[in-house]
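Reading is simple: the token line describes the chain's fold. The lines below illustrate.

. . .
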Amino acid sequence: MKIKKIMKQLIQKGIINRLNLEQEVEYFSNIVTNMQKAALLVSPSYILLPTYQCNLSCPYCYQKNFDLYSQSRLTMDENMVDNIFSTIARIEAKRGETRQEAKHITLFGGEPLLKGNKEIIHYIFQKALALGHVKMTIITNGYGLEDYQDLLDYDCIEHLQITLDGPEDIHDQVRITKGGGGTYKTILDNIRLVLDQGTKVNIRVNVDRRNIHQLPRLASELMAWNIHKYPHASAYVGVIHQTIQDKDISHLLDEYDVLTYLTSHLEEYPQLALYGLPEAQIMNSLQEALTKGHPAIGLFRSTHCKAHSNNLCFDVNGHIFTCLENDGTERYIIGKMEQKGDITWEDETIDFWQKRQVSRIKACKICPYALFCGGGCAIRAEERHGDYMNHYCNGYQAVFQYHMKKVLQSKID
């Protein structure tokens, strides 16, 4: 009797079903199709690349080999900015969006905050504010931030992302100026400058097998600088990915490697708690699902990221892309802005991106984690397998299992 009751409950909750494999795959595909339709209705995220130029010379920079990098104009001019924001305004109006609804705009590069870019960056902010309610994010190396102190007066800045590659002696071997000089102290000074003005900073720490063991030392240095005492400061660990020029990838890590390192060394180095854990939102959503009965639908995704639905990246040349990992690569251009602001859309390339849904990736069709990871990054899949319609797991399954076990253990306790 007990078993029948349990079985009934499992069937009601969808944990057990009577579908055969073919029917289940079809059911899964329908869910993904409907999710993708909904994703395409969400307001786009806009990304502006005012320049491909940079003041650093990091050896792993993926932009160095981009087709359009060397052909690029130096910096956006006001006419280009006007055309971009006219396009954004038309898109928002067509969607029926109002001035009160938030528009998300990110500045990227190259390095957007070069000293010579101040005038055009302020102009971009003025045009953005004219749209109404905007939230601005700036991805910067932080090296020239002292020249942009007045930029931090804009209330619309949501946060800055700034990268460190380890403690000073390690960071200064890789995140170097064009002349080979170190940047660590200048960047840390600028991080505190931003934090002192009340702006949120996310510190990204790039790691591979060669520097992951330096994480405790970097955390200690950041804490010595009192970074952890700022409520609007956070730090996380990001893995360095394979690039086209990488023949040997033995030094690369995945997300589970990072998780394993952080959790296995936490007792010895409690300062590692500064970084948080990869994919921590999994734990939070599962905790909500199991303790409050809220479904973990917020974790579901039909694709890996918004590049497959509603990212629009405008570069310095008026080219439009969907993904920051391949801006500057000619075959990934989804649109070209003409002199008067008209856009010629590349329908085949748009379709190329939008059709990569997790239900269309062979390995993902029968994967229990498919709706959580969305098939992984298309660019990484192409680099690793030679086909963007392949999967790229990046240790996701093991990371999910770790968080699930933690949540279940806490519920048992």
Remarks:
- The first helix runs from residue 2 to 12.
- The two ends are 28 Å apart (CA to CA).
- The chain has a mean pLDDT of 90.
